[in-house]
Amino acid sequence: MRIAAAARQPYAPHMRLHFLGANRQVTGSRYLLETSGTSVMIDCGLFQERACLERNWAESPVEPGKVDALLLTHGHLDHCGLIPKFVREGYRGPIHATPPSIELSQIVLEDAGRIQEEDAAYKKRRHEREGRKGPHPEVPLYTADDARAVFDRFQPVLYDRPLRIGEHVEVTWRDAGHILGSALLVVSARENGRQRRIVFSGDLGQRHRALMHDPTPVDEADFVIMESTYGGRRHESATDLCDRFAAIINDTVQRGGNIIIPTFAIDRAQEILYHLGDLVHRERIGRLTIFVDSPMAIDATDVYKRHRHLLDAATQKMLEEGRHPFQFSGLHFVRTAAESRAINSIRGSCTILAGSGMCTGGRVKHHLRQNISRPESTVLFVGYQAEGTLGRRILEREPEVRIHGRRFPVRARIEKLNGLSAHGDHDDLMAWLGGFRTPPTRVFLTHGEHAAAKKLAEAIRGQFGCAADIPEFGQVVQLE
């Protein structure tokens, strides 16, 4: 497949990389690579940390109409969530992604647009009652209609099939093992007669993880842009994780409480269901009602079912044996708001999976309001909580948290399972980087808080002897 580069202004004679998000933080992934008259953007993600929310509203740092192609690594909101705004600002090119990433991104974007409309309306009512104004109290960043308007720009690409963009850029998507359809990008670009290879890791998954394949090794690169979410930290082993998961559920049920699991709708929900189903089948937990209270998670689970051929060998074997990882006794999928509200009237214990995963919006906030002050209940985190999010404040056990404009004392039991993260830990990241035949000239660490990136950078310099930098937001680097 070949795409002609759009007419645009001349570029500097050097290949340049713009760091436009996820710099010393874990959301807002976005990069711009300029070379030989061709400009490609890699990801276009939403910022979710409270301190950086204004970046979502700011004018695009690059002129959208002069970007030739948008390359998407996967369908998480922090990688695709600003696409509708980017298109509204003037981007007219294609959005390339794997087929599952296209389906998941469309689910995520439409849901995000709807939530932003609802949040804007809710804030308007609340601010009118309180007689105050916020910076953007009544206007959604984009609407569900804005999200749907970008769907026809998506163009599918397959793993390991090179795509040429313009005259001098070729991109290959390879399985990153993070979520269904996730990819790391291998970019070959020619500048001034010299060929360079730049690898964007996207988000890298764990090795030996349920559902997903291991991240694909890459043999060579001049430059690597690599995530660092869990730099300096190790996940729990699979055995320890299942033991702790069962113990937390059984203990909470014995106390008569509910287990609230703030859940990322894509991949995390499916992996939690995989492990819950395993615990049910092996009778490690008693009879328990489990709700997936997230229309988006339900839709995402359907995507996983449709693309089962991309799941790992162990999951394929389960399916062949008739043991579906997303179907077991006691599991209920909740779509409507009325069904969601009805959960709160149920007597006895239940487990509730609801979004969003960092508690920044969605139905989980309503379940937190009902349970955060109950000592018998448990809030169980199974994914990364970015600095400044409600999830991070709960995880750090602040004595009170603000939910929907009200203060609630935190009396529930707060737990975290590290092994369920879709991100590889420190050892996984180092193992993937160790797959190169020779170390890259330079590694840029992104998508990680500064402390985590710093620990990973030190390890990379010590083990591989190559430069490892931690770019700042807005930094432009010449790839020489």
Model description:
The protein is α/β, with parallel strands linked by helices and about 475 residues long. It has 14 helices and 23 strands. An eight-stranded mixed sheet has the order 1-8-9-10-11-12-21-22, covered by helices on one side. The chain is globular. Residues about 1-10 have low confidence and may be disordered.
Shape: globular
Classification by helices and strands: alpha/beta
**Helical stretch tally:** 14
The total strand number stands at 23
CATH topology of the largest domain: Metallo-beta-lactamase, Chain A
Strand content: 15-25%
Q: Low-confidence segments, ≥5 residues, pLDDT <50?
A: 1-12
Biggest β-sheet strands, sense, barrel:
8 strands, mixed
Strand numbers in spatial order across the main sheet: 1-8-9-10-11-12-21-22
Q: Which features characterize this protein?
A:
eight-stranded mixed β-sheet, alpha/beta, 480 residues, Metallo-beta-lactamase, Chain A, Rossmann fold, 14 helices
Q: Short description, anyone?
A:
The chain has 480 residues and is of the alpha/beta class. The chain has helices spanning 54-57, 77-80, 83-88, 99-130, 144-148, 238-255, 268-281, 295-306, 313-320, 337-343, 364-371, 390-395, 426-433, 450-464, and strands at residues 2-3, 16-19, 30-35, 38-44, 69-71, 95-97, 154-156, 163-165, 169-175, 183-191, 194-200, 223-227, 259-262, 289-293, 331-334, 350-354, 378-381, 400-403, 406-409, 413-416, 442-446, 467-469, 476-478.
